[in-house]
Input
Amino acid sequence: MAMPSVIVASSKPLLFCLLAVPLVLLGVDVWREIVAPGSALGADPGEAVVHHLGTWGLRILLLTLAVSPASRLFRRPRLIRFRRMIGLWAFAYLVLHFTAYLYLLAGFELTNVIVRDIVKRPYITVGFAALLLLIPLAATSTRGWQRRLGRRWRTLHRLVYPAAIAAWVHLLWLSKGGFMDPFVYGLVLLFLFGERIAYSVRRRRAVAGDR
Output
């Protein structure tokens, strides 16, 4: 009986390491860029770093949304135990993405560049909104907060859906010429949302049938 719990416990460190791989690879590229400028991050290293962190933040956010559908489709409810870790990693990547933008592209000029960009550039506005939506989710991700909030916890954590849409729109508006990535990520979002809607409809019908 204890074997599944042991497997889950041993899988968490492995998953943690896998989610850290893109960050480690970026660190290697940054080091190569410092040693030999232009060798790893192209003509605009700052933009490359910001893009890398944002792309992986969106990918891991989609992975977070995929946990519940995967647990239902493959009948593996224990997969839910990995959702919190994945979600926190997504948040970490997106925080680093925004921090890299502040430091590498905006130069921490709060009153001039940052405020102007957030207000006047729609793709930055919607990206910043996505990050703001994720802050309360990361802050209340613990079991303690889940107990304190009760049913409101689930309601609050539905903010992940508009956050994911906003992150996707941010990428779509940011794309220059190539729309394949936004198209693929959009299809993934549609599938994940569609599965949730279908599951909700089936559950309501089952409840109505029991009555």
